[in-house]
């Protein structure tokens, strides 16, 4: 059984720096079309007391031959199926940007309601709450034509221009992005009538990005809630200064939560 679980972990989770003595795990969810490498690299900067688990979805990196997931429940079934023993073993925090923030919410809601587990902190970036009017009224991007889709992807930045300019590379990159956006477009959840979490929630966003309803995230927790705006557009977090700032904030909050937990 352990070998089966281990193989599942290696397929779904990228962990560049295994830290069995870490006191907290930071579970990171990818943006639409994204892989696991960007977040996995955070292990080089974060202290060894924080073990970084970066989620790898099908259809990318070492899973290119696997079919894309069609809905949020498929993502939750796989990721929670693999991570549940780890979630029970020691405290965990969550980070997600854009589509990843949406997965964060679905993940946190599921593990709380089904397993009575919750993160010690949630870090959400570049996204309106999935139950907010801003999100529900957002344009559906997954149904755009290829040409319209390329124009939109170029406008939000974050994708190396050499990929978008090369038709063959674009054909490799765009299907994962479209598949994830289809999941995002299809995902619906109820607006929480009362907080179901008690952990702190920290939101980040780029000042030049399209406006997001960050305040709507507040209603899901009775814990502290903060919003911080950083320079840049949708992929502001890829800029070195912003990334350092976010990692410093993550470290500070997790270390504080860890002391409270102990």
UniProtKB/TrEMBL annotation:
Reaction(s) the record says it catalyses: (9Z)-octadecenoyl-[ACP] + H2O = (9Z)-octadecenoate + holo-[ACP] + H(+)
Molecular functions per Gene Ontology: fatty acyl-[ACP] hydrolase activity
Domain of life, source organism: Eukaryota
Keywords: Fatty acid biosynthesis, Fatty acid metabolism, Hydrolase, Lipid biosynthesis, Lipid metabolism
Record Pfam families: Thioesterase
Family note: Belongs to the thioesterase family.
The protein, known as: S-acyl fatty acid synthase thioesterase, medium chain
Native source organism of the sequence: Danio rerio
Phylogenetic classification of the source organism: Eukaryota, Metazoa, Chordata, Craniata, Vertebrata
Gene: olah
């Amino acid at each position: 059984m352990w070998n089966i679980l281990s193989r599942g972990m290696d397929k779904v989770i990228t962990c560049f720096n295994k830290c069995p003595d870490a006191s907290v795990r930071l579970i990171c969810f990818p943006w639409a079309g994204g892989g696991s490498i960007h977040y996995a690299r955070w292990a080089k900067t974060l202290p060894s007391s924080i073990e970084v688990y970066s989620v790898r979805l099908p259809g990318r990196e070492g899973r290119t031959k696997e079919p894309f997931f069609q809905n949020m429940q498929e993502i939750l079934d796989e990721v929670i199926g693999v991570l549940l023993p780890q979630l029970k073993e020691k405290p965990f925090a969550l980070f997600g940007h854009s589509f990843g923030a949406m997965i964060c919410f679905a993940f946190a809601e599921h593990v709380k309601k089904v397993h009575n587990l919750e993160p010690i902190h949630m870090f959400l970036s570049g996204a309106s709450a999935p139950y907010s009017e801003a999100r529900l009224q957002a344009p559906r991007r997954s149904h755009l034509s290829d040409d319209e889709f390329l124009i939109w992807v170029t406008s939000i930045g974050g994708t190396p221009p050499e990929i978008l300019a090369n038709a063959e590379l674009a054909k490799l990159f765009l299907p994962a992005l479209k598949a994830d956006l289809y999941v995002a477009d299809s995902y619906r959840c109820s607006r929480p009538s009362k907080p179901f979490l008690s952990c702190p929630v920290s939101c980040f966003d780029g000042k030049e990005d399209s406006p997001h309803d960050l305040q709507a995230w507040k209603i899901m927790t009775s814990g502290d809630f903060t919003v911080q705006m950083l320079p840049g557009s949708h992929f502001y977090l890829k800029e070195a200064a912003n990334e350092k700032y976010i990692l410093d904030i993550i470290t500070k909050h997790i270390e504080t939560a860890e002391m409270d937990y102990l």
